[in-house]
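FORM 7B: Structural annotation worksheet

SECTION A. Query
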Amino acid sequence: MIRRVLISGGGSGGHILPALAIADEIVRRYPKVQIRFVGAKGRMEMEKVPQAGYEIEGLWISGLQRSLINLQNISFPFKVIHSLIKAGAILNKYKPEVVIGVGGYASGPLLYRASRKGIPTLIQEQNSFPGITNRILARRVNKVCAGFPGLSKWFPKDRIVETGNPLREGVLKLADSTTSPSKSVATSHFNLNTSKPVVFIMGGSLGALSMNMAVRHLLESSNKELMYSVIWQCGSRYFEENSKWLEEFSKKNSEKAKCVTCLGFIDRMDLAYAASDLIASRAGAMSISELALVAKPTLLIPSPNVAEDHQTKNAKSLVDRGAAILIKDCDVVEGLKNQIEKLLKDKTTRQEMELNLKKAARPNASYQIVDEIEKLLR
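SECTION B. Predicted structure
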């Protein structure tokens, strides 16, 4: 029986979504469980977690800026001390049986204090290269549930269990033809033409400048009418400028513009995936895990702005299996259009990619992680 759980972390959808998937599975097994989240004030989790139906507390914490002379770094030591004190108060208040960290600034103070108090702790590491918070916590936590192989360089080997990355119920249903939304329902949700192939282009929850420029180039360099429709997830920070750009573009290119739906953040990813015939995506850990499950032909554009180029390492987990095609970020503006058109014309390659993606999928990650939580408590 699991009665009280704290889950901490966030900062991006790549941390928040696996945290919610773990919480959902705990609730499925133990409906009376009390689950509370701990996040960083001002970050995405403070909005998204309550929307998913869970309570959350915020810590005054952030990371160090890369420039050491950045004035924001002056407050960093005070934030750490303040967050450690509040984390201790949260642990005393809720008395959790287990504390789970998914990466992100807030998980550091909470899991550190929990480990000092002897409370069982578990990390879910999504990436092939762990973030700094999880690397700091590496030898303090009791268990590490890994999304990718090869994490023994950073974590004690005897504490690692390779589970894959946990996915929420809406995405898991896509692997089941009896529960997956129909293509017509999904395309209707995004106001798209059902007679055309649909290309879903996503740059992550915050967006990717290069991929947004690639979409603009794709539209500007195409003929009068696009031969496919586009779901363009441009990212929350880029939504205003790109929606305005599309509005201006449509004044002289109405036929092409009506084939495009531009969105900042997509809450119904299940419908976006169901609508798609081809997907172009950043290679974040959660995106890789979802794309394997969805099994739609995939183009991966790893971000160059991440530690140790870990998105390229993530991407190779699919590319090496013939399940995806890699486009370098420096080539994406000119190359995305050509790769989309080439792949849409090559039915044989698309079918092979779909088969290889299904072989790479890990749909039971949430179940395995909760199994590991139960073992810790036993």
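SECTION C. Observations
The domain at 4-166+363-377 is CATH 3.40.50.2000 (Rossmann fold). Residues 59 and 86 are 7 Å apart (CA to CA).

SECTION D. Sign-off
Analyst initials: ____
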